[in-house]
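Title: Request for sanity check on Polysaccharide deacetylase prediction

Description:
We are preparing a figure and want to confirm that the structure record we downloaded matches what your pipeline produces today. Could someone re-run it with the sequence below and paste the raw structure tokens into this thread? We only need the token string, no images.
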Amino acid sequence: MPMARHIVCLSYDFDVQSGFISRGLTSPTPLSRGEFGVVGSKRILSLLAAHSIPSTWFVPGFTIETYPEACESVVKGGHEIGHHSWAHIAPASQTLEEEEADMVRASEAIVRLTGTRAVGYRSPAWDLSDNTLNLLLKYGFEYDSSMMGGDYVPYPVRQGDQVKLGEPVRFGPPTSLIEMPISWHLDDHPHFEYWRLPTTVNPGLQSARVVMDSWLDEFRYFKKTTDFGILTYTMHPYVLGRGNRMLAFEGFVESLIKEGAEFMTMQEALKAGRGLIY
């Protein structure tokens, strides 16, 4: 029986304006909301450095080429850089050729930034296409963090599931790609960001302390029910980086430390779990 370990991965989607542009929101005010991510990134990096916490940043190629100094600061802080497309376009809306070209372009930007290729991938808007898995395997990725088939236990991604209305799912075989599962309720965006689109409104703007209490309860349940596992939180610098949220987040991090959380990059956590939970 392995020693009890409760690994926490703090992950950041460093989208800046890319998510707004991909949705056609290119007037000055929505673009400025994304631009605030550079301000937020400095606050987050400072907090992580103060507690010597490693983390993973999923960075679109757009961000790397638009804000190279901000991205270099992430690398200098010792944090992992993960793949998050180039233009933050949902893969399910792309052709195979478009998705592959975007993936390759983003990979090249990451190599220029870090000197190495990314081993982890997170799809924009957590929306994989029918082609994404094959592309990730083709280009040698080791893990994905876009799906929700688990919470504390990463698992091998299957290939070739057959889904047809009126019939049971026919599951395909597992692959070498490991899923590091995520969840919308452990993502800051739906809790905090006010969105008004032609067909939908996300009210957001919840109390930061209420959300952080909920996130802390998730860790406590994780600790109570598992001997070994990995829990991933997802955040966006332009969302989390606002003052009151940073204050609540700092308290959350300090509580995780007191509760015995072991912080790792997602690449480190992937290695820690091999042979134990997958």
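Thanks, this matches our download. The chain has a mean pLDDT of 96.
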